[in-house]
Give the backbone structure.
Amino acid sequence: MSKTKTTSKEFMPDEFLHEEAIEPKQEVEIALMIEKQEPRHLKLPQAVPATEAEIKKQWRAIRHFFRTGENPNPVEVAGLKPALLAHFLNGEEPLTDYPLFLSEEKEFEHCSFSALLKNIFQKTFKEGEAGILFNNLQRIENYVRKYVAVAGNYCSLNLVFEPALNELSKIKIKGDDRINFLKDIEKFKSNFPETGILLGFSQQTPVHILVHLLKHQSKLKRNNFIAELHSVKSGLEDLLSVEKIKSPKEQSSKPGIDFAGELIEFNTLETLLPESASESMPQKRFERISNCIRVLAMAENILQKHDAIIYLGKTLADNQNYNWKELLHGFDLRIAEAGQSCSAASAGFRLHIAELSKLITAARVARLEVNNKYDDEIHDDYFSRFNWSYFTEEETSLCPPIVLVEETQNLLGNELHHFSALIASNKPVKIMAVNRLLPNKINTNGNESDDLFSFQQELSVLAVSQRSAFTLQTALHNPMHMLNGFAAGLSSASPALLHVLVNSILNDSITQNFFEISSAVEGRQFPLFTYNTKGEKWGSRFNINDNPQPYRNWPEYFFEFKNEHDVLEKSELDFTFADYIALNKVPYKNLLVVLPACWSDDLIPLSDYLELSPEQLYSKVPFIWLADAENILHKAAVPFSLVIAAKERLDLWNFIQELGGVNSFHVEQAIARTRSEMQEQKEKEIKEIESKFEKQIEEVRTTATGEAMNHLAGILLDLDRITSLPAPQKFSSPSLTPANKESKSPENLSLKVEAAEKEEEVSAEPWVDSVKCTSCNECTDKYPRAFKYNSDKQAYVDDPTTVTYAQLIKATEACPAKCIHPGLPMNPNEPGLQELIARAKPFN
């Protein structure tokens, strides 16, 4: 719900004199500006024991009420209200955007008075400066709020702001702090706007906003346009002046021409003009320019005579809550007959736009003529058919608009056909529909019915269905949404419906009046939205963000209460359409308070009930939480007719959500489709990776199995040539005996073959039979760069180039496991190779 502030103590204007200033050193909550009282917590009732028979009887009555809505013996409970609003309606005041500041100066924007105070303060002072003034801004706001209310919720800024500062300056402050405080006030005051209007919460507020925008929104543009037309008109007059100089009749009529004839030959003037100017202007062009000058001369009267022509429905005109002559002073006000307001506005538009079309036509023709670009062949036909539908958006915004102010119930009643025709015609008529929230009756957007919970027609949805009409649905409790929507609608070149919800009758409690309106928005009875025809895409045209929690079905809030053991608990509670009904209708006549002894699992919150399937609902009865005047909580059963109404309102809200792109079925489908495609692609990639790794794993497994078998065979058979490493490259050692000394005998050949077989077993590179290594550290300590340990702490040859063949032989001979095989020399120039090879032979 809305932000709040406690009102246990309120400052009246004369209280400024008796209060000391709140200084920065004091630890107070400036936003509240009051002395806090102990909050009155909501409490669960004490259950009165009941017999099983009494409970069954009560439940028969509950189910009968749920089905029929009949409550023959309603028990009146004093002060029943929705539980979420109990604190507001029992002393707390909502923190709103009222008073609303309407600027009349280009340097300042429309905003709440609270925002104006803070913005001007930040503009005037640096951080840390004027601390006393900052901490007392709330005093100014309180004073202004009360003054605006007393002044009828409408007054000028200067009328109240300067007195508020004067009163603030009288607060008790001592010494140099007072001097600095007064200087800060003057500096603060100097940066405030010199003009502006303040509006409070009132039925007339929407009309005041409408009037202010009509007077000021296009004023600057209109004045600039008129100045431009004067300039163009002067250019046309110059063209005709030159034509008059060229005219023989004009020349002969000049006084004293006979006397000067001997000195000047006026026909020679033609030789002094440009060749194009020396030719006579065609009569057709002369008449066209003359006509443009006549029309442009009326521009000021056409554009500034009235800021708008306002048609007022008869029912509203007779409403005593509005002083229309005062509210619409300075406008061309016309009262439409009952049932003919739309027709009157449409007819008035035709007459009004005809005059404006002549002015816009003259302006366009004048520009072409001044720039000598008017082409008869092209432009004559174009301008012969020119009308308001050819206007640009800029030209449309310059024209004083036609505005119809009518009640919603009339537009949905006798005026429905004419309303639809007016919107469909695309005429840029602006319609402000006043929707009066009727006390103690469900508001059906103006249509009253014997069945209070029947299907409701939606004026704004009908306007949206025409596609070309700017549509705003707004409410009195949200002045900034209303103001911004009005401004956009009035500046739109299309038809505009400004549908605003107001109180029918204001009572003495501003808080009650405020929540009568806000509950309609919270309970989805009257959702806020804007449909702007300028959006390129359909979804981009809708804005529903000013609704409370627009992404949810119902707004959800936390609330605290004390249970039967007087222990404070917190819970979450939805504000539903039934809560709106409980506030705006007599609750005990439309809801059934259920005794605590009968509370059971069959009583479920209405918001939960609406989400269950029909199979789950047979034994269930929906309820909402109410609180009485003593802040005691009650469960109130909701009749089926109200359940149907809540479903209908929820359906409308879901429809508006989808138009605004929130919880859209198509968006959700697209997301689900994209997610599914991404999941499929991911699974495919995972399978490819798994397949790749399975292949690699199989290869590693095969290689590892072969190596393991080699190791095992080497251990079992004690064969030196089977090692844990891949088989090293083998080659025959070079013969040390010269070839010419080799014997050719069979014996020698046999010995040679045997020697060759042995030589083939010799590895060219050194290697270690790692399986036999005892990890003695002998080789790794002496030659750490040549020998290293594997993961099993068994040696292997890492880099044989770091040792000489002689060092390698020493390591081989020192190895206790005799597992080092030195191979053949890698450096053929190393000294003593023959001796070294002989020493290595037993180990190879």
